[in-house]
Design goal:
Length: 337
């Protein structure tokens, strides 16, 4: 990746900032869709996302993957599971923002990397380095402190973190590109979402046509709000290193947190500041450890490449595996809020 021209890297960085910036600023969008409720907004997001992504795939002429997917029942099942968990994540996120819980929602995406690592240990039997264990333990302590600060467990944060981490786990097994995966998932979501919207309309409870053309256009634009950051993310992912993408992903919860505190004026008593401080400490440890491991792997790879040719092949494979293991933590999954 370091061999990319400087112009390409700059384009990648700009697209990365755009993607994570849009995901971070999306709490400003969902309140604009009121008086539609969270379920109606969610259903419109599903329906219009498929329309937008389908149009994009038509323009790009990328349909070969669909035929292959249809011939693989196991992967189709994984698509359905992924669609279920991202539906839970999207619905909870929209409800939390429109119900005045932006700060708690941001916490969910701060702790998501820690939850992802914990799931890797428990479900995939992955081995952690000592600093990673320390980060996970610090994150668990933060949840205890935040439980005191909120007067209850931070259910919204935990729900968002676990649903998104599970979605990421399924996506790893599915191994499908970002736009293609979103298209497949929204195909699964489309009929139930459309049926729900028709049911709302039949009961006279739909706001799509009742609140004017501007409101209808905003609801339809939920598809663009979902898909456009993915386009930018895809452009960034092929141009900048994974370590850079991993750092950029923290922009999203940072923006959400700042909006919650300074724009929506949500309360932040000392106990919550203490809990967030512990979370940020855990993420700092995690990031420092990942960067340190990446540097070690890069040095090992460089030394093996410069070694005599008799040992180069074996050593390069070993160093490459070490470099890959650096990213064994949370991937920046490509279907953010």
């Amino acid at each position: 990746m370091s061999g990319k021209p400087r112009g390409e890297r700059h384009i990648g960085l700009l697209n990365g900032f755009a993607a994570y910036g849009m995901w971070g600023l999306v709490p400003l969008f969902w309140p604009l869709l009121k008086p539609a409720g969270a379920m109606e907004i969610l259903a419109h997001r599903m329906v219009w996302s498929l329309v937008f992504v389908g149009a994009a795939l038509l323009v790009l002429r990328r349909w070969a993957w669909a035929g292959e997917l249809l011939r693989q029942p196991r992967r189709l099942g994984l698509v359905a599971v992924a669609a279920m968990f991202i539906t839970l994540n999207w619905g909870l996120y929209i409800w939390s923002v429109n119900s005045g819980h932006v700060v708690e929602a941001s916490l969910g995406y701060f702790i998501n990397p820690l939850v992802t690592i914990a799931m890797g240990v428990l479900l995939l039997k992955e081995r952690l380095r000592p600093v990673q264990w320390l980060a996970v333990g610090t994150g668990a302590a933060a949840v205890v402190v935040l439980t005191v600060g909120f007067g209850r467990p931070p259910w919204i944060s935990l729900g968002l973190a676990f649903s998104f981490a599970t979605y990421g786990l399924v996506k790893k097994k599915l191994n499908l590109g970002g736009v293609e995966s979103l298209a497949a998932e929204t195909v699964v979501q489309f009929l139930p979402a459309l049926g729900f919207l028709m049911w709302l309309s039949a009961r006279g409870e739909s706001t799509f046509a009742a609140e004017g053309a501007g409101h209808a256009a905003l609801l339809a634009s939920a598809g663009i709000v979902t898909a456009l950051p993915l386009v930018c993310f895809g452009a960034a992912a092929i141009r900048v290193p994974l370590s850079t993408i991993g750092l950029l992903q923290y922009l999203t919860p940072v923006f959400q947190f700042l909006l919650g505190v300074f724009y929506f004026h949500e309360e932040m008593p000392p106990e919550r500041w203490a809990g967030f401080a512990l979370v940020w400490l855990a993420l700092s440890l995690l990031t420092w450890d990942a960067l340190r491991a990446a540097r070690r792997a890069s040095r090992a790879l460089t030394s093996e490449i410069s070694a005599p040719s008799t040992t180069r092949a074996t050593g390069t494979v070993s160093a490459t595996r070490n470099a890959d293991s650096v990213a064994s933590g949370p991937d920046p999954v490509d279907a953010k809020p």
